[in-house]
Amino acid sequence: MKKMTIATGASSVSTPVWDTLETFARTHVQGFIQQLLEDEVTELLGRAKSERRRAVDAPVGARNGHGKPRQLALLNGTITVRRPRVREVEERFVSRLLPLFQRRTREVSALLPELYLHGLALGDFELALRGLLGDAAPLSASSLVRLKATWQAQYAAWQQRDLSALKLVYLWADGVYVKAGLEDGKAALLVLLGADAEGRKHVLAVASGQRESTESWAAVLRDLKRRGLRAPKLTIADGHLGIWGALAAVYPESAEQRCWNHKLRNVLDVVPTKHQAEVKAALQAIAGAASERAATALRDTFARTYRRAHPKAVERLEHDWERMVAYYAFPQEHWTHLRTTNPIESPFAAVRLRTTAAKRFKVVENATALIWKTLLVVEQHFRKLNAPHLCTRVYEGASFRDGIPTTTITTTTAAPRKLRAA
């Protein structure tokens, strides 16, 4: 096979074969990034290397060689680059591509908490990272120790950020047990997730506390309100009384929706295993009803069918019914998001798996900061709510009945309601 040589910076490699493919790719990436660094200087000075200034008013400054070779860890391996130096310029030259003191990409930094939560011990980090990122990777077990301190500082700053500009529409609340760093068996991470007027989701709070405690939830909500967070139009949470008591005290204007997944589990807990399949199907039909009236009719049918055989199941279904059907007063396109606390539970499924075996967490703050960091990584992949344009209408105060804007309801339908109300 004929070979050709391709120059990439100071090195050259032949056309690759399978055994040299990784090295070939990494070398070309290295040469490409080095060239981009050189191009930044060319843009700053307005002229190429060895080219003289063409005008009196042309940018001043000159190239001044390169700094020491630096390793940069990428997800596909570690490369070596040298930052160009510039002299006689008004302000110190700082590369936009590779800022000072950066030795790993954001993606590599995001990988570290994932590996740690997955159960990789500190002593194993150097070996694992060398295998993933190459022998030249500027990472070690001590790197994670420093990063953990950085994450805790970032978490503390995140807890103080201003929220007054956030146009909050929906709020999901859940207390999640992770078995990591939470010494008290009843302790949980209190997590709040919000959706704004553009349909984007945001992690708003991650704090340790008591899941059933009104005081714990109220402390988190009051802190958010102190930092400018306005009341959500609808809050979705499970059936624990703590969140509802706190919400009534801090954001009484918010409508309240209980999670249907929690309700189903709560009802099925008092149904014998052999009858659970048919009862579950009936409950799912209620949750998926096309209107509040239809849901209420199906609830009544369920009560007539199972009251004698499963009275506790009927009692649990009927309890707190108004909170089970609050979502009908919001756009139908959003119902799939509003029936449950899945927007919180789904990203936390991976976190819970990783932290179940993570016995190394001895301090609550360590666990909370690290889990928060992982959630922020997940947050980057949150998808918008369905029909995000309707979030703006909800935020602006538009009203809906059975998921349909009330302005589209005909006069013949609306008039009898007014007469009955009168």
Mean pLDDT: 82
Number of H- or I-type helical stretches: 16
How many DSSP E strands?
13
Give the strand order, joined by hyphens, for the main sheet: 9-8-7-10-11
Which regions have little confidence, pLDDT < 50, spanning 5+ residues?
1-12, 357-362, 409-422
The fraction of residues assigned to DSSP E strands is 15-25%
Structural class: alpha+beta
Order of helices and strands: EEHEEEEHHHEEEHEHEHHHHHHHHHEEH
The N- and C-terminal alpha carbons lie at a distance of 92 Å
- Please tell me what the overall shape is: elongated
Largest sheet: 5 strands, mixed
Tell me the Rg in angstroms: 29 Å
Helix proportion? 40-55%
Task: Furnish the topology, listing elements before pairings.
Blueprint (H helix, E strand, L loop, with lengths): L4 E4 L2 E4 L6 H25 L16 E5 L3 E5 L2 E5 L2 E4 L18 H12 L7 H9 L7 H18 L9 E9 L10 E10 L4 E10 L3 H13 L7 E4 L3 H10 L4 E4 L1 H9 L7 H12 L4 H15 L4 H8 L2 H4 L10 H4 L3 H15 L7 H16 L9 H7 L4 E2 L2 E2 L5 H11 L1
Parallel strand pairs: 7-10, 10-11
Antiparallel strand pairs: 1-2, 3-6, 4-5, 7-8, 8-9, 12-13
Helix pairs in contact: 2-14, 4-14, 5-6, 7-10, 8-9, 9-10
